[in-house]
Each structure stands twice: as C-alpha cells, then as structure tokens.
Amino acid sequence: MQEDRFYHLMGRVLSGSASDPEAAELQQLIAEDERLRLLYWQMVPGTAEREEEEQSEALQAYATHFAKMQIAGLMDEAETPAPAPRRFRKALVMTVFLLALTCAGGWWYWSASSGQTRGAAAQEVKTPKGSQSYFTLADGTEVWLNSNSKITYGDDFNRSSRNVRLTGEAYFKVAKDEDMPFIIEAGGLKVKVLGTVFNIRSYPDEQNTETTLVSGSVAITLTDQPGNTIQLKPGEKLAVRNRISPVYQAQHNADSLEAQQVPILTLSKLRTDPLDGTLLDAGWKEGKLIFDGDNFGKVASKLEKWYNVTVVVENDALYNASFTGVFEKKSMTDVLNALQATGKITYSQDNDTVYVR
What we know:
- The chain is of the alpha+beta class.
- It contains 10 helices and 19 strands.
- Strands 1, 2, 3, 4, 5, 6, 7, 8, 9, 10, 11, 12, 13 and 14 form a 14-stranded mixed β-sheet that branches. The protein has a 3-stranded mixed β-sheet with strand order 16-19-18, covered by helices on one side. Strands 15-17 form a two-stranded antiparallel sheet.
- About 35% of the residues are buried.
- Keywords: Membrane, Transmembrane, Transmembrane helix.
C-alpha cells in the first residue's frame, strides 16, 4: 500500500539513512497523493503554509494510519479487546504530539508516552513504565522494546559498526550482515549475532540478565570474563546473575547466603504456553503478562513496569515463594486477586502503591 511505503520512506529520511532513489520516491508519492502531502507537511513543520482545515485533516489521517501501523502484528484488528492497560489508552490522543518530539531522529511507536531522541554522538530509544514500543533500525533490524527500557546506539550505526546498549527488555529480529555483526551490551553481557531472533531481559533491579534464543545463534561474553564465550543454540536460555549491577547490589546483600546459593550461570530450555505456543519469555510482546515460576521479587518488578505502580513487599518470605500464570488483557486488580487466591499473599492498595504481605 502507498501509505505503508510512505511511512517506511519517511522513517528512512528522518533517520538520515535514505538513499537518493528513496528520497526521490518519497517526493513522487507526495506529489501524486494529496493526503500523503498533508501528512508530510505535518511531519516536517515549516514545509508549507496550511489552512486550519488542512491541519485537522492531516492530524486525523495520521492518527488513523499510525494506530494501524503500530498495532499490526501485536493485536488482532478484527478483535474487540477487553479494557486495555494504560499503555494503550492514550496512543491516539497523543500521536501528533509524540511525532513532534521524535521527528528529528525518530520512528513511530504504538505507545503514546514512548520517545526517541537524537544527540550529537548517540541516539536513544526509551519507553517508560506502562508502555511498549516498536521500531526498525537503519540496518533493517526490528526491535520491540518493553516497558521501562532503553536502547542507545551511535550515529555511526550501520556504517562502521552495529553496536547497541540495552537497559531493560527487548525482542530483536536482527537483519543478517555477515560482514558486520550486531552486538548488544546488556548488564554484564556482550551478545554478538549475525542474523538472529532472540529476547534479552536486563533490568538493573532484577537478579539475572536473561537471553532467550528463538532462532539463529548468538555468542555471549561476560564483561568480567572476556576470555570465555558461551554459544547458545535455538531453544536455549541463559540466565546470568547480576553481580556487577550497582542497583541490584544496593537492594540485595551480594554476600548473603541466599545470594551465594544462586548460580552465576544457568542454562535452560525455552518454555512455551501450552495453550497457544507463545514463547513465555517474549509473551509481553503479544500483550501477555507472564510469571513462569518467578519469585515475588521478579513478580513485583514485572507488576511495577507493566502497570506503572510501586510495589512494597512487606513479607521477606515471599522472595522464596514462586508464582506461575499467564494474564492477557487483565487489570492489575485481576492479577493481584489471582495471586492472592493462591493463598501465598495478601495485598492492599493506596493509589499507585501496592502493599503486599
């Protein structure tokens, strides 16, 4: 479709990676289609003087197609969803305001509060708590970024290297380039790939940095053990204890008996939802909040990021209890009530703070 091609070309132009033929193709689309021309004027302020009626028409057209482009593949358009988490509610309302913030170096996000900024030496894509985002890097790599996560990369990305740094969680479909490997730094790991699909979870407040390989291959090196490389095969998951994370060390006694009993490295097989085959470690990309034998420390971390709340754990024994469940399009109250029904916790809520005991 012309609209899809228009958005692709605009992303290439705004990120500075468009070729001369692509720039010429964009100009031709703008010249032939009045609606696309209105969208172009809105995306690149100052390109033309517009009447108020034209501005309104452009905003409406952009909001419609923005929602279509970003939700595609993440939820069924034909399905009428249950009340969605707050990360979806403001998407259309804030669309044009978001674009004004991101057009200098940006891409499009289906999260209203997501943003991308461009600096002199690096670019940054980040999502706050309660939201998620999707974007494509200049090399064609697709990235889904989970809540409270950030990716940074240099302006030379895809020219002299393909290096990115991740804080939080992301799902990657890496474009293949045998001459230029894709390298991700996350927590205490460096992950090197060529063309691969995988998920990385690396939050500084959590115990482990986890890499789950769906297809392809990756070579993982620990920052403090550069001489040792771990090769993952499809269907494998590697969890590495966050020994060097200052945030995790500040919240946990690294010398405690509990910490000493946790292996530095744990290799396991990836797990899927028996009902629909969803990869549990990447279920968040499909709108699913998943606990897979998680202790309550990790459960609390996921709740905070998913619903943008603060969880206060008032019973340390919960850190030794495990929880399993899959929640799709459920409110936080529904999730907490289900956890409480296990008999392991009770909770109370005061505005955006949840107390668990």
